[in-house]
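Tokens for chain A. Residues wanted.
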């Protein structure tokens, strides 16, 4: 898991990253350190992504709240853990959907609990596991553009390559519903990730890679409402 630690105190960010690595295990986590909000924003604007972000609220230049608001525009689901000496600022953090607040100095037990919850979310909420040829393949749920059912198997179309799994579409729908991504069954053979819907009508939709999927008449109204809700919430 990739974790960004953003704090303008070098001693503290080195300390918290060391604690995270020790508690999580070096084989499970990588920490990336930044001195203020502007640094992590530049990194994420260049295409770098993180599975969670530990963010100090009070920093010079771009503070934690401003950085979190900017991050949320393009990364609405990444867990943000605020680090602060002023717990009264917690209410403001709910405006940017904070995952957790940790008071400075950080309590080791609370840090362990936070990391445990992040790990559960990482594997059960953000990622999906496929059983293929006796092996387990884990990929980010939001890497899936859509799922298509055909010939007793489901083909998951991802950003990189299709993944074919022998299963029913109903089982695929249950697995996708257990993630934090926004999937909707638009047709008896198709489930689409709303994140990648480029345009749509009452009868079809187009995803980011150019593929055109049918929209069933029975699903058209609910799909339209879900899309409007998604766009309103995430600014897609």
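Reply:
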């Amino acid at each position: 898991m990739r974790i960004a630690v953003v704090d303008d105190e070098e001693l503290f960010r080195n300390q918290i990253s060391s604690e995270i690595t020790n508690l999580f295990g070096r084989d499970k986590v990588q920490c990336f350190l930044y001195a203020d909000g502007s640094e992590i924003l530049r990194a994420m604007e260049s295409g770098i992504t993180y599975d969670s972000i530990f963010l100090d609220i009070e920093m010079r230049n771009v503070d934690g709240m401003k950085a979190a608001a900017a991050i949320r525009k393009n990364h609405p689901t990444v867990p943000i853990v605020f680090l602060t000496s002023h717990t009264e600022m917690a209410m403001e953090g709910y405006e940017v959907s904070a995952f957790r607040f940790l008071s400075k100095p950080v309590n080791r037990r609370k840090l362990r609990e936070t990391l445990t919850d992040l790990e559960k979310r990482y594997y059960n909420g953000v990622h999906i596991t496929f059983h293929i040829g006796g092996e387990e393949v884990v990929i980010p749920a939001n890497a899936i553009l859509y799922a298509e059912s055909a010939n007793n198997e489901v083909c998951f179309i991802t950003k990189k390559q299709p993944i074919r799994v022998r299963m029913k579409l109903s089982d695929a729908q249950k697995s996708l519903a257990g993630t934090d991504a926004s999937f909707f069954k638009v047709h008896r053979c198709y489930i689409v990730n709303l994140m990648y819907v480029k345009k749509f009508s009452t009868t079809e939709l187009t995803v980011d890679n150019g593929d055109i999927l049918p929209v069933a008449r029975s699903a058209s109204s609910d799909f339209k409402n879900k899309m409007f809700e998604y766009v309103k919430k995430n600014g897609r």
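The longest strand covers residues 144-150. The two ends are 26 Å apart (CA to CA).
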